[in-house]
Write a structure and sequence with these properties.
single chain; Dna Ligase, domain 1; three-stranded antiparallel beta sheet; two-stranded antiparallel ribbon
Length: about 375
């Protein structure tokens, strides 16, 4: 009797599960085919840059689909998402997923975009390098975006000033003392940026995209490492920006360069200042510059980054070469680095390089 009762219970549970699956299946199929809806006119607007998830939510909110999740799954398996366009649409809500996907792919407006590379070490502002007596202008992020047609420089700086310094990363920005709080927080990379008539809108989208990338690169482990070193992420980005400008694109030398600057910071009796040449000229764009970034005049680190450092420079700031005895370095015109313990050794190498015609003199204006 007990065995029969248990069997009946199992059969009943199976029956309930099958009924539930059938109900779900019918509901999903009705949603896909549009038969669950009444045929009313549905109007939706898909903003430029919308993700598949946000498009699905917009459709659900408008009554075009019953389930945003179902539409996302359909889009994934039908592989139609890459063709969706932004714009305003009007259609009956019972047309079904396939027809909605077709409408989104053939009507509206195709999003306009342009590929832009922000090199590692690029600042927000333009700066000029004096290389052996020749002025070389290095365009900043504002200029690069303007040249690419993403936005004009005025709209860029206006949008930049309206970014809220919230969240784990941006809360580190020095809004009180840095000339531009977001300097160093716009990650250098190659991006696909949207553009259009609304300059400020697309400037904001570009800025947010670069910040999102920075947030993805700077991991929880990096925050912990910075804290263990006694620094904030703003300090690390500041040091990384100096390492980037002093090392160029030579990632192999960055931990060694970092070690030299940390050795100076950790020996205040021997080095009262950090002494990095590029920092002397960072504030030249500011008519009210008071030398707060000049590491020949201030103690410790500047109030914020001087450019956008790449991942290698950030890692070098977090993990400098250990137990190095060097306090100086210099490079020749071929990019080779020479490290020294004393100023006399440093000067001797510079003199030799000058005599060999292998010397490069470079500083920022």
């Amino acid at each position: 009797m007990k065995k029969k009762s248990l069997l009946y219970i199992i059969l009943a549970v199976i029956a309930v599960v099958l009924i539930a699956i059938s109900v779900v299946a019918v509901t999903v199929i009705s949603d896909i085919n549009g038969t669950s809806r009444n045929g009313d006119v549905c109007r939706v607007t898909i903003p430029q840059g919308s993700t598949i998830s946000s498009i699905a939510n917009i459709l659900e909110d408008a009554g075009a689909v019953d389930s945003a999740l179902s539409f996302r799954i359909y889009t994934k398996f039908a592989k139609t998402g890459a063709n969706y366009r932004y714009g305003s649409y009007e259609f009956k809500n019972n047309v079904g997923f396939a027809e909605i996907a077709k409408i989104l792919s053939t009507q509206g407006q195709r999003a306009l975009s342009v590929k832009v590379t922000i090199p590692e070490g690029t600042g927000i502002y333009d700066f000029v390098k004096d290389v052996n007596g020749k002025d070389v202008t290095v365009p900043g992020i504002a200029t690069l975006l303007s040249r690419a047609g993403v936005c004009d420089t005025e709209s860029f700086f206006e949008a930049l000033s309206e970014i809220s310094l919230e969240g784990k990363l941006l809360e580190n920005a020095n809004s009180e003392k840095a000339y531009c709080a977001l300097e160093g927080y716009l990650f250098p990379d190659t991006y696909e940026f949207y553009y259009g008539d609304d300059n400020k809108k697309y400037a904001k989208l570009a800025i947010e995209k670069m910040i999102d990338r920075a947030e993805a690169v700077i991991t929880d482990e990096m925050y912990k490492r910075a804290n263990d070193m006694g620094y904030t992420i703003n300090d690390i980005l500041t040091m990384a920006s100096i390492i980037q400008m002093e090392s160029g694109q030579n990632g192999n030398e960055m931990p060694n360069v970092a070690a030299v600057f940390y050795n100076r910071l950790n020996n205040p009796d021997k080095f009262t200042t950090l002494g990095s040449s590029p920092t002397c000229y960072y504030g030249s764009f500011n008519p009210n510059d008071d030398d707060r970034y000049d590491t020949y005049k201030i103690k410790g680190l500047p109030p914020g980054p001087l450019c956008s450092p790449g991942e290698a420079a950030i890692k070098a700031a977090l993990y400098p070469t250990e137990n190095t005895p060097y306090f100086y370095f210099v490079t020749d015109k071929n990019g080779k680095f020479y490290y020294h313990k004393t100023g006399a050794e440093q000067n001797a190498t510079i003199n030799r390089l000058q005599q060999e015609g292998n010397w490069i003199y470079e500083y920022f204006k």
